[in-house]
Design goal:
With about 400 residues, the protein is an all-alpha fold. It is built from 22 helices and no strands. The termini are far apart. Helix content is about 75%, strand content about 0%.
């Protein structure tokens, strides 16, 4: 960025540098805008104010010494980390200019450097402390990272309520991921919580957050499945369906396997994206999601292959899909592996001991019926017979 290069060059004119920064920030350069914001806050802290562009430029020029110190310290810190991977040196440079930081960006960078597990400066508690300082000074990114730490118990005791408060704080500041998190957390709640969640999700959609596209599409599908919005006309329902299609296809084009899986579901069931079921297109979307390692797509594809073509046509592929899903921590995948290994109708050798292991894995992953299946099979094995042998005996 020309403005930053001019500021860091002691032979250049500070007025030219500031002018270039103003131009770049007006054109939408986020780094320039961040530094201009920092400069303006320095001025506000000194009682400065500007009503015109000329006044603003003159006031910025008055703050040049502090801006130059801030930028040069920032440049040295970035060089220490990006060029030499010396986190401790970078932190020292950032701390030297922390007193000039009125936006929270410096504290955000310090916290981030403390958060790298393999860096010499790794210190989760220090990361949290710096994220907090950054959030207090106005950094929505620092507020978001602080919320994540509170939610997951990184460097601090887990506190879900405080985490949501910081997500809300960051969401109000326009942070798309926080808007998405807030929206997703209470999307299907009633009352004001649900209204606030939907509002935040829509804001994240407007900021082109891919996860928000998928979540909002899912919300619209649930509304349509319940008859649509109260009083909606046929044309309005068609617009909702078109919006679902647009959101999911945009998210899929952006690489979202979740969106690909949802498109598969919609084509298979003939809703929103297609007036009639389209199995071939559904399978195409499922396979695209499977190629990206999406466990729910593996389960959906396996189940629908069995439903459409029967087990005999795809026994190995179906088992492979469920095994891959189970290895990724999917409870339904693990449960279906238990079913396959314990019953002969899948055309594969029965292995009740393997089935028991998968039932128990599914139970640990939260499957509702796997625990009882495991208990029954364990009892049968203790008697020296599998479930099917027990059924034959009956």
């Amino acid at each position: 960025m020309l403005g930053l290069r001019l500021l860091l060059d002691e032979q250049s004119s500070p007025a030219d540098a500031i002018a270039q920064l103003v131009v770049a920030s007006t054109a939408g350069d986020r780094r320039a805008l961040a530094f201009i914001t920092a400069a303006r806050r320095i001025l506000v802290s000194r009682g400065g104010a500007a009503t015109t562009a000329t006044d603003a430029l003159n006031l910025l020029l008055a703050a040049v010494p502090d801006i130059v110190l801030l930028l040069r310290g920032w440049a040295r810190a970035r060089a220490a980390w990006t060029d030499r991977k010396d986190a401790l040196a970078a932190i020292a440079e950032y701390k030297a200019i922390a007193g000039l930081d009125l936006t929270g960006l410096v504290y955000l960078e310090i916290g981030t450097l403390h958060s790298y597990p393999r860096a010499a400066a790794f210190d989760a508690k220090a990361a949290v402390a710096n994220y907090y300082e950054g959030a207090k000074r106005g950094s929505v990114a620092a507020a978001y990272k602080l919320a994540c730490c509170l939610e997951d118990g990184i460097g601090v005791v887990v506190h879900k309520l405080n985490a949501m408060q910081w997500f809300l704080h960051a969401a109000r500041g326009g942070h798309a991921e926080s808007q998405y998190r807030v929206g997703l957390a209470n999307l299907y709640s009633g009352g004001m919580l649900g209204v606030q969640a939907l509002s935040n999700l829509r804001l994240a959609v407007q900021q082109r957050h891919v996860g928000a596209w998928v979540a909002y599409a899912g919300y619209l599908i649930s509304v349509l499945e319940n008859g649509g919005p109260p009083g909606a006309t046929g044309h309005e329902l068609e617009l909702h369906e078109a919006q679902v299609t647009g959101l999911l296809k945009a998210a899929a084009a952006a690489g979202s396997p979740h969106a690909m899986t949802m498109l598969g579901d919609c084509f298979f069931d003939g809703i929103c994206v297609s007036e009639e079921p389209d199995v071939d297109t559904a399978f195409m979307w499922y396979r695209r999601a499977v190629a990206k390692g999406h466990a729910p797509a593996m389960v959906a594809l396996a189940r629908h292959l069995e439903e459409v073509d029967g087990v005999d046509d795809h026994p190995r592929e179906i088992l492979d899909l469920y095994l891959r899903a189970a290895s990724l921590g999917n409870d339904e995948g693990a449960y279906m592996c238990g079913i396959i290994f314990n019953h002969p109708n899948y055309g594969l050798p029965r292995n009740p001991h393997a089935a028991l292991s998968f039932y128990r894995l599914a139970a640990r992953l939260g499957h509702e019926t796997a625990a009882s299946e495991a208990a029954d099979l364990a009892a049968a094995l203790a008697r020296g017979q599998s479930d099917d042998e027990a059924d034959d005996a009956d």
